[in-house]
Amino acid sequence: MISLNLDLSVSNIGPSRKAVCFGKARYKTGGRFGPRVQREYQLVVILHGSVIIDREDPLGKKTPSIRLQNGEMSLLEPGYTEHFRFDEKHETIHTWLSVNPASLDREFIAALNALPTVLSGSTRVQELLDQGLRIAPERLESAENFMEALGRTILEAVLWEAESHAKHKVMPEPMRLALEVIGHRFTEPLTLEQVSDAAYVTPQHLVRLFRAHIGETPMRYVWRIRTERGVQMLRQTGISVAEAAHRVGFKNVYHFSRAVKERYGKSPMQLRKEEWGLTDNRSE
To answer: Lowest CB count within 10 Å: 24, 194, 200, 269, which one?
Structure first.
């Protein structure tokens, strides 16, 4: 095994093999690592520099190399022999998460195996990795359970990011821009013209795009999001129906109650009572 100019810091490594391990490594220019057989699922996130990972499958057949640039990540699968070649012009810094396959169910493993080889990194994933790196190793069952749950959460976040990226990649740019502005401003007074201006298309064209891709007009989508978020507030907090309506952008409680009734077939308070286990057969 070759390892050149490596500065390694790790978390959650002890005498015994654990289900989850976090780490951070710094390689000087031209650093090398390998060969090594990957035993776990390992998420590698490049923070600076780059790496080329040459791989051979369990039968010894060479597979296409993985090339990761700054801001990209890859989930390495178990069973492959790996050779790492780090950036020839700059030092490379990367964080990583290793998860023992034995701690994952078959359905989850199938979803991980279907991920693209190279993924765009995200602030969400890196923040979770940083949380793992800050945790000091402890010989406590609760600590190990927490580390395992955090590792699973990070892999779930990677799946979420990949699915979201794939969805928006096939969506026309005006749709992406419109959904973005609606997501940020749905609680404000918002008109079709404002949304179409943000998407750089005419209102008529935006309506056609929304109907083609999500089956409803932009403004019906806005009101649906407002209604769903308002119901979520009622279910999860103790605020009044009027306050929930105001917070999500309805002008009055009557309009909100009518929208909830049309979408869910029940009044706002009936939905809250059901959520809180106070269901009865009386109407409001």
So the answer is: 200
**And the tokens for 143?**
């600590």
Two tokens, residue 215: 């089956």
How far apart (Å, rounded) are the C-alpha atoms in residues 182 and 31?
46
Question: Which of 59, 25, 26, 30 shows the shortest CA–CA distance to 42?
Answer: 25
Q: Which CATH superfamily is domain 173-275 in?
A: Homeodomain-like (1.10.10.60)
DSSP string, the chain: -EE-SEEEEEES--SS--SEEEEEEEE-TT-EEEEEE--SEEEEEEEESEEEEEEE-TTS-EEEEEEEETTEEEEEPTT-EEEEEE-SSS-EEEEEEEE-GGGS-HHHHHHHHTS-SSEE--HHHHHHHHHHHHSPP---HHHHHHHHHHHHHHHHHHHHHHHHHHHHHSS-HHHHHHHHHHHHHTTS---HHHHHHHHTS-HHHHHHHHHHHHSS-HHHHHHHHHHHHHHHHHHHS---HHHHHHHTT-SSHHHHHHHHHHHHSS-HHHHHHHHTT---S---
With 0.85 as the threshold, say if the pTM is over it: no
Exposed e or buried b per residue across 207-240, where buried means at least 16 C-beta atoms within 10 angstroms of its C-beta: bebbeeeeeebbbebbbebbbebbbebbeeeeee
Could you give the residue range(s) of every CATH 2.60.120.10 domain in the chain? 2-169
CB-count exposure of residue 89 (10 Å: 0-12, 13-18, 19+): exposed
Report the CATH number of the 2-169 domain.
2.60.120.10
Q: What is the predicted pLDDT for the residue at 135?
A: 84
How does pLDDT run across 223-274, given as a tens digit for each residue? 999 999 999 999 999 999 999 999 999 999 999 999 999 999 999 999 999 9
